Amino acid sequence: MERSWLDNRVRSRRKAVGGLTQAELAALAGVTRQTIVAIEHGKHAPSVALALKLASALSCQVEDLFVLRQEAPEAPIPGPD
Asked: By C-alpha distance, which of 54, 77, 78, 79 is closest to 66?
């Protein structure tokens, strides 16, 4: 069975649109800051409804935030938040 990975660009998009904080994005999407942290770190895959809310809050398309890959991701790139 082939495994898929969900890459996300939520953190980079959040910072690109005026430097929203995780708490601000969470409020716009109607979730907790902890949910945003989990999504940004790849520990939580959002529902379709939440992905749409995030895209709306970040003024982009869902496809700009999330990409499904078939191969294993390289080592995660740590970054300050």
From this structure: 54
